[in-house]
Amino acid sequence: MGDQDLSTELEGQGYQLTGRHSAVKLCYWTRESLVRGRDCYKGRFYGIESHRCLQMSPAIDACNLHCRFCWRNQGWEEDGPMPEYDDPEQLLDRSLEAQRRILSGFKGDAGVSRERWEESQAPRHVAISLTGEPTLYPKLNRYLELCHARGITTFLVTNGTNPDGLRALDPLPTQLYVSVTAPNAEVFRRLTLPSDDGAWARLLESLEIIRGLRTRRVVRHTLVRGWNLGWCDAYAALDAIARPEFIEPKGYVFMGKSRQRLGRDHVPEHAEISEFARRLAERTGYRYLDESPDSKVVLLGRDAVDRYLPGLGPNAVPDVAIPA
């Protein structure tokens, strides 16, 4: 696919391009937070204010996995480091400008308070995810540094197949997500369709690395019925390698281009995710801290770990009842 065709397709999907390989897209929950005061599960779990959260990727065309459950289009990505890359200062400025441009139409919405809209113009959180593998962006460290200097917290989501990129992180993101979407190498191969045979081994290497990183770490299990839902013992063994502060079992959502690869019968009910999380908690020793049925996700955490970001949320949160 040519550059022009790719740009046209991305813009048609709601992306605001901010560089050669970077983009911003309005999150559903940013809209919900503005219009209805509803935050996403990251708000419930960690205190994130969704109307002040910017969702972006510095690597829209760089990924070495082709996950069946991914909602984006696929087939045009590069699977290695970028030969040319966007300037991080410009990338942050353009990302903030794009977010303000996207949200400009909400200013006159009668259902949006002026105070909330004005807050949305100064994002406090950047979710570095959206699409692609962000650790393939060579200037990611400088981008993180700039965000933190402006008082913006960073949530970095990685597929874990670039351990060298994780070793190189300096500064570390405020919170680091590593996606562990398979219990073993064979399920990983069939579900994520890696571009090379070494991806699973590199994921295991990354789990060893993140165990020693001094930041808030989350392992996320995106679970697809009939593909990778189950194998609690195997997932628990992988989680034991990483020893993150939190584990998020989360159900696959039938949306975007994933609908061409999977069916509605692959979407688990929240009760299935909750039961998986209960069993995983038993095997890992983590506590069942909270759940968000709307997003089909459960939060497991270690003892004595404050789940809220500094300055956000109450200091103590009671556990919810573990489902029988």
Structure summary:
Helix content is 34%, strand content 16%.
Protein architecture, described:
With 324 residues, this protein is an alpha/beta fold. It has one domain (3-301): Alpha-Beta Barrel (TIM Barrel), CATH 3.20.20.70. Helix content is 34%, strand content 16%. The protein contains 11 helices and 10 strands. It has helices at residues 3-12, 28-36, 41-46, 88-103, 114-120, 140-149, 163-167, 185-192, 199-211, 232-242, 270-284; strands at 15-17, 23-25, 53-57, 125-128, 153-158, 175-179, 216-223, 246-251, 287-292, 297-301. The chain has a 10-stranded mixed beta sheet with strand order 1-2-3-4-5-6-7-8-10-9. The longest helix has 16 residues, at 88-103. The mean pLDDT is 90.
- Kindly report the CATH topology: TIM Barrel
Parts with pLDDT < 50 across at least 5 consecutive residues: none
Structural class estimated from helices and strands = alpha/beta
Strand order, biggest sheet? 1-2-3-4-5-6-7-8-10-9
CATH architecture level-2 label? Alpha-Beta Barrel
- The H-and-E topology, N to C, reads as HEEHHEHHEHEHEHHEHEHEE
Supply the number of helical segments: 11
Number of domains: 1
Question: Which shape, going by the Cα principal axes?
Answer: globular
Strand % is: 15-25%
Distance between the first and last residues' Cα: 51 Å
Q: State the assembly state of the protein chains.
A: single chain
Q: What level of helicity do the residues show?
A: 25-40%
Give the C-alpha Rg.
19 Å
What is the averaged pLDDT score?
A: 90
